[in-house]
Specification:
Layout: H1 42-46, H2 75-94, H3 101-107, H4 116-122, H5 135-144, H6 147-155, H7 165-177, E1 183-188, H8 194-197, E2 207-213, H9 216-225, E3 230-233, E4 247-248
Parallel strand pairs: 1-2, 1-4, 2-3
Helix pairs in contact: 2-5
GO molecular function, one term: helicase activity
Keywords: ATP-binding, Helicase, Hydrolase, Nucleotide-binding, Plasmid
Protein name: Superfamily II DNA and RNA helicase (SNF2 family)
Length: 257
């Protein structure tokens, strides 16, 4: 005959809080049902290491230009802005993360080297000395990029003339009046993507964007400015582009060589 267990010896699931925590079965001053384990006391809980605060994660967002880029007035200052953007781009890539909004504002000040004051001062022939006052910027650029990247930047000076903001805004205003609201957008020869930065409100989230840029340095900066776009680093004259875009716009210098 089976031996019954007295009710006083049974563990009630209703009139005890012992099962609220697995540790409540043990003693230690908490009203547990079983003897306390050696060293199991409240002091252990107090000695636990504090939890480090979480590091904020950077969310990838496309750059939008509300006003202007606050470009420097002098050419040496403009060259310094270009170099700062290149170095920042390299640091962000090394950290394998998106650019913050403040960093994108710095990257957007990259204007290339198409202006004759920059092209003639920053790209020297082998053995040639720097122009007076340009050694700091020239040495900085040569040290910041590879030989292949430097050659590409020099080659692109013949057409690296980024479209002014007021012209870009006028183009978008005209397209809006013509009825364009959304769709697949292509910008060939996109540079740093000013046409993408100045898209009208409401068009950003309902359009897909592809930008094509031949210069590697400029294309990498554009990719950090517009992580949601597809930035293709290649020569547009040789690129295989699908015929499914709803809109192609930009300021492409094809045939100007």
């Amino acid at each position: 005959m089976a031996k019954t267990v007295p009710a006083s010896a049974q563990l009630s699931l209703f009139d005890t809080t012992a099962l609220c925590s697995p540790f409540a079965l043990f003693g230690g001053g908490s009203g547990g049902l079983l003897p306390a384990l050696d060293g199991d006391d409240d002091e252990d809980d107090a000695a636990e290491a504090p939890i480090a605060p979480a590091i904020p994660r950077v969310v990838a967002r496309d750059f939008r230009l509300a006003g202007d880029r606050d470009l420097a007035a002098g050419w040496k200052a403009r060259a310094a802005g270009n170099l700062a953007a290149i170095r920042l781009m390299q640091r962000i890539e090394a950290e394998t993360r998106p650019a913050t909004a403040k960093e994108q504002a710095v990257l957007a000040r990259f204007t290339g080297y198409g202006a004759s004051d920059l092209a003639n001062a920053l790209f020297r022939r082998p053995g040639e000395a720097w122009r007076e006052g340009w050694a700091e910027q020239g040495d900085g650029l040569e040290q910041a990029v590879s030989a292949a990247e430097l050659a590409s930047l020099a080659r692109c000076t013949q057409y690296a003339h980024f479209t002014p903001e007021y012209v870009v805004r006028a183009v978008w205003a005209g397209l809006t009046r013509l009825g364009f609201r959304r769709g697949a957008v292509l910008e060939p020869g996109c540079g740093t993507g000013l046409f993408l930065a100045l898209r009208p409100e409401g068009m950003t989230d309902c359009s897909t964007v592809t930008g094509v840029e031949m210069d590697p340095v400029t294309a990498r900066i554009a990719a950090l400015l517009y992580p949601k776009a597809w930035i293709r680093q290649e020569d547009f004259t040789r690129a295989r582009i699908p015929e499914t875009f709803d809109l192609a716009l930009g300021n492409l210098w094809i045939g100007m060589e």
